[in-house]
Amino acid sequence: MEYNFYKRTPETSSNLGISYDLGSLMHYGPTDFTKSYDSYTITSHDPRYQRTIGNRMGLSFKDSKMINTRYCSNICKRKLACQNGGYTDPNNCRQCRCPDGFGGTYCDQVPVGNVPSCGGLELDAGVDWQSIQSPNLTSNMRCYWRIRSPVGERLALYVQNISFPCRNACHNFVEVKYTHDKTLSGARFCCETDKKPFLSDNNEVLVILRTSAYVSNDYTGEIRRETYKKLGISFDKNYLNTRRQQLSENQFDDGTEAFVNRDFAHQLFESDIVLTSPQARSILNEIKRSLPLRPHSRTKGLKKRISRQIHPDPTLFWQSTRIPYRFSYDDRYWQESVRAGIRHVEQHTCFRFIENGTGRDYLRFDWARGCWSNIGRVGGGQLVSIGTGCDYLGIIAHEIGHAL
């Protein structure tokens, strides 16, 4: 499984200039590739982000932006002056598509929550601790707060009380965006917290409360402003190591396709990908080039000579954003689960999927063993397996993401 952790290079992978997002739907789960799924293989440098990785609730802002940048950038002829990292929405050229925590036509407002008295507010931090408390929680809540301090000051905050169902990757959570880049997913809290204050990178913090269909309990947090001179942002290494150990002592199903495929993941690439022969050869060559060379090896200098010989294959891109699909398994409830995942991708991108549509190239969804897909368009009716344990919106959207 070691090859799963080799870094990809521009020869076989491109992020289109979009920064790394720990909350990506395509990110590995924290326990992926372990033998017994009782320990972490992936830990975040900042442990507050540990339960952000492995998201299978849906596409992140960065996920949809990457798809829209690759396939949809020519749809809107006039680009809007979107703020806070937003961009013109290919599904509505009169509206910006905003990072979570921003709203309005131009992403310059705080979104109104879908529950009365829950967020949609801009707050000014003072020198004394101030409390933010949620109302009684219900299913599928969305609440937003934006907290600011004067320029030149940071915000100190801590999660005082939170008691959601605890998962490796949070499904019900308070998300705090406290770094400079608010387009990235924030740190998500759904388990017992350490109640140790931490600092924002600048004078703005976004707090997002999100619940799924099943939720209980509530949230309370406190925040205040701090001057740059009074507190500097840094991480205590002993504290970080202690938190990582605490987090790794309570593991269970992390809700990802890798857990579903655990008995045969060794037959797949990155636990859920079926490679074509040319793709496999490209990856193997890339891995060979990344291995350390022995002294006096005859292959010394080989990396330099072949490093530009492999390029992303444009034939793997879909030629149209209207993709036909068919079902190979006749079960009404299973099919509706797949359709829900398809609708989610359509909501966030310019792709449209045509059930039983015509065309040489199409997606064929089947109830096979496990959850897996090809990478990009491989031609003909390419299989997307949504087997037992895979029929969740996030996993279905994840496998569609591989196919795109």
TrEMBL record:
Residues 118-242 form the CUB domain. Disulfide bonds join 72-82, 98-107. It comes from the Eukaryota. Coiled coil: none annotated. Binds 1 zinc ion per subunit. SUPFAM superfamilies: Metalloproteases ('zincins'), catalytic domain, Spermadhesin, CUB domain. Its EC number is 3.4.24.-. Residues 1-73, 308-404 form the Peptidase M12A domain. One of its GO terms (biological process) is proteolysis. GO terms for molecular function: metalloendopeptidase activity; zinc ion binding. The active site is at 399. This is Metalloendopeptidase. It comes from Acrobeloides nanus.
